[in-house]
Amino acid sequence: MIGERVRLAREACRLTQKSLAVSSGVPPGTIGSIENGLISEPSDNTIFKISVATGFPVGFFYLGQLPDMPEGRFRHKKRVPAKDRMQIRAQVRQTVELVQRSEQCLRLPKVTLSPITPSLDIDQIERLAVETREKLGIGQRDPIPNFTRAVERAGVVVVRLPYVPGCDSYSVWPDYGFRGRPIIAIVGDHPGDRDRANVGHELGHLLLHTEANNIEYDQAETEAWRFAGAILLPVAAAKDLMRRHLTMRVLMAIKANYGTSMSLTIRRAYDLGLISDDHYASLNKQLSARGWRTHEPVPVRNEETLLIKKIVSHMSDGDSLRDKNIHLNLQDQVLRKLLAPVSAISQSEGNVLTFPGSSMKGIIESNSHAKEVNDMPTTGEKPGKGTYKCLGCGQLVVLDDATDTLPPCPSCSGTEFVAV
């Protein structure tokens, strides 16, 4: 069991056995023997050296068997090294373990979504998006104010992971059929509209492909993108908004209202037969000519991954990362990314997309054996007189009056707090 944890720690750092040996001072033969189970009880000094080299707490290596996890789905460039895929899986597997441990003492939101067993055609994927919107409590013509939060309320854990070249996102449903909980990972820092598209894309994979083991990569990607477009920009709204001539100005207006990237909206219009082949090609050429392939106008605000932050808050004590990790046993860089506020993501000033905020009050409750979970307000709410701690950096904010509005964190500009 220690061996599989040493392997996970090595893969999470994108290291070979040889490179880990160099950085830790542990002979490569010893590392190989530990991973292969030939050395089942390595010395404390050996584990300490591997801990220092990989950024994992010593306690991580003694937690026992790792949770089972299927391969999952990546959104990545076609030629991504196996090391990069293994790194993401190793980072997500740590999160899966934390979430599963938390369910023993916290009542997380019920998973209200289910994978589809048969393969679906395009029309059925559109209908699935309609049904999913209904389950999320969103009207068929309405924008989704906070897509990440809507998905979290449906029981899906969304996390942010450190940057891995060539990879945008990942999804997996561990222990599906045995009360398992789906995970969506956003890899690296991207504009808000791209994050929303990635969450929609991975949600499509979870619903369409969790039980589809033999589907080809290209087909799975096409289906997941169709679902992402359908859930973010529903067909009824799309036809109303794009029934006239589709121009850059119209695309920017749709982005400002629905939080969909211009490129995704162009593809959505083409998929629905609202524009011709020539018009589709022309719009994409205009994006490229203006340099909007990588930096679109109309910035969209990034969304907090609040559920995982609340899990971390209730599963750990202490203000410093080191103190928190005594209880969490996560890789340092993974924990930092899980807790980082979205204000740390570089983006343009003057966000145009201004959706109304929605509180996560009640998204997570304690069960009969757990400590009581206090309300966790967000910036802009009036949670009442008291002291509130920023989930991002631990800064305390004091409200002297019940009518005071909770401001952004004065230290890190974070927007998520816990009552102290």
Strands, total number: 9
Count of separate DSSP helical elements: 16
Q: How many domain units?
A: 2
What value does the Rg take, in angstroms? 22 Å
Structure overview:
The protein has helices spanning 2-12, 17-24, 28-35, 44-54, 82-102, 122-135, 147-153, 192-209, 217-232, 235-241, 248-258, 262-271, 277-289, 306-315, 321-328, 332-339; strands at 73-76, 106-107, 157-161, 167-172, 183-187, 365-366, 386-390, 396-399, 417-419. The chain has 420 residues and is an alpha+beta fold. It folds into 2 domains: 1-66, 434 Repressor (Amino-terminal Domain) (Orthogonal Bundle), CATH 1.10.260.40; 68-367, no CATH class. A hairpin with a 5-residue loop joins strand 7 and strand 8 (396-399). It is globular, with a radius of gyration of 22 Å. Residues 346-375 have low confidence and may be disordered.
